[in-house]
Amino acid sequence: MLLKIAKTAALVAIATCTLNASDFNAQAEKDRIALVKYFEAKFDNPLKDKNVFFPYSTDDELENNFISGLKFQDFSEGNYSFSKNGRMSYEEIKEFPPTEEFIEYGEALYEKPFANGKSFQDCFPNPAEAGSMYPYFDETKKDVQTLTVAINQCLTSNGEKAWKTTKGKIAHLEAFFAKSAQDDEKTIDVKIDSAEAAAAYERGKKYYYTQRGYLKLSCAECHVQGAGQRVRNESLSPFLGQVTHFPVYRLKWAAGDKNNDGLGTLERRMSGCIKDQGQVPPANDSKEMKELLFFMAYMSNGMKIDGPDIRK
Ligand code: HEC
Q: How far is the CA of 237 from the centre of ligand 1 (A)?
């Protein structure tokens, strides 16, 4: 009997030992490092490695339009990181960034009192923190928290109406938070400190790698294996760095908005991709969407936050 208890105790000790906090992110860290290596190799010398990485691109494109030798941080610029043509128009637009006025609207919203006298400052006392701490896994609620959902929770818990989660006020406020994080030189720093957080990461990863829609494509087929290739008139951006720069001002969104307000949230952008795959996207406050974001953010860990940015 005593021996049995001793054995059980020893087993429990081994189990707790192997499950110390630093181990919960072991798989995620392996995935992340492999992804960084993959992209640095892929965009090191695209013409030379054409057969490995770009069998469908022309030599002319690889030689004349590709920027080579990209490193980790470079990937935050999406398809402008590797395309010379894309970069040129990007830099032109950035001379007079259309995002400036939206950051100002966001700052005004941040300071404006709610009907009860409180304001966003009570929910998010430090704007640079608000722009860099999400998404994170809440160990009490056992659920991923995203900035978009946290903003609406702040509104409703103060008796205000929730905002639309795609554009308008929410994008303005997020732009102000992102700019504050950028000014404070914050980086993406997603932590996985429990078995539940690791499971949420795995579910997000599964979503990213699952083929869906009539084309049977996964996010990864376009943004990992496909990154750098063209789809109609767009070059596919690399997965690495895909979440560092939101909200984003898109020329396409501005053209379709009566106030020329082309700013949109990350959730809006991703829903667009999911719709293009011929699928109904998960709601922006759903577990699926939050876990997808959690996985995506982890994979860009260590990169600078550089939103809001501009895209075609
Ligand atoms: C058929 C190919 C295709 C698939 C599949 C696809 N996307 Fe995209 N995605 C695009 C294209 C084209 C763009 C616009 C060019 C670019 O920035 O990559 C884009 C852009 C994006 C952007 C914006 C990048 C930036 O720098 O602003 C994000 C984020 C994104 N996709 C996420 C996803 C996610 C998540 C999935 C899976 C749920 C997905 N995409 C599936 C083609 C695809």
A: 7
Q: Mark whether 273 is an active-site residue.
A: yes
- Residue that the structure tokens 């996207």 belong to: 281
Q: How far apart are CA 27 and CA 294, in angstroms?
A: 14
Domain parsing of the chain, residue ranges: 98-312
Q: Report CA(176)–ligand 1 centroid distance (Å).
A: 24
pLDDT in tens, 21-42: 569 999 999 999 999 999 999 9
**CA of 305 relative to ligand 1 center, distance in Å:** 19
Question: Which numeric CATH code is attached to 98-312?
Answer: 1.10.760.10
Q: Which residue has the tokens 């006020």?
A: 169
Residue nearest to atom 3 of ligand 1 (CA): 222
Ligand 1 lined by 251 (C-beta under 6 Å): no
> Which of left, alpha, beta for 46 (phi over 0: left; psi -120 to 50: alpha)?
alpha
**DSSP letter (8 states) at residue 263:** E
Residue 122 CA neighbour count, 13 Å, CB half: 12
- Strand-pair partners of 262: none
Nearest to 304 by CA among 189, 223, 134: 189
CA 96 to chain centre: 25
Q: Where are the beta strands (DSSP E) in 98-251?
A: 136-138, 143-145, 230-231, 234-235, 248-250
| DSSP state for residue 158 in the 8-state scheme | T
End-to-end CA separation in angstroms for the chain: 71
Please indicate, yes or no, whether the overall pTM of this predicted structure exceeds 0.90: yes
The verdict on the CB of residue 277 being under 6 Å from ligand 1 is yes
> Which strands make up the sheet holding 263-264, listed edge to edge?
263-264, 248-250, 309-311
pLDDT of residue 20: 55
